[in-house]
Design goal:
single chain, mainly alpha, two-stranded antiparallel ribbon, binds zinc ion
Length: 54
């Protein structure tokens, strides 16, 4: 497991961590999750509505 420095508090955090356990700073991966997750959820909801109606 690789470590890198938090951009906010400069402490070591895991590259797989989505936010810093020390200061709560959200990593780029955490931000990317939001940008990727929202369209996927939107697509899923639209698919569900198309298939099953409201
Ligand atoms: Zn931090």
């Amino acid at each position: 497991m690789a470590l890198r420095h938090c951009e906010d508090c400069s402490k070591d955090i895991s590259t797989s961590a989505r936010r810093c356990p020390h200061c709560g700073w959200v990593t780029r991966w955490g931000v990317a999750d939001i940008f990727v997750g929202v369209p996927i959820i939107t697509l899923f909801v639209m698919f569900y509505i198309t298939y099953f109606g409201l």
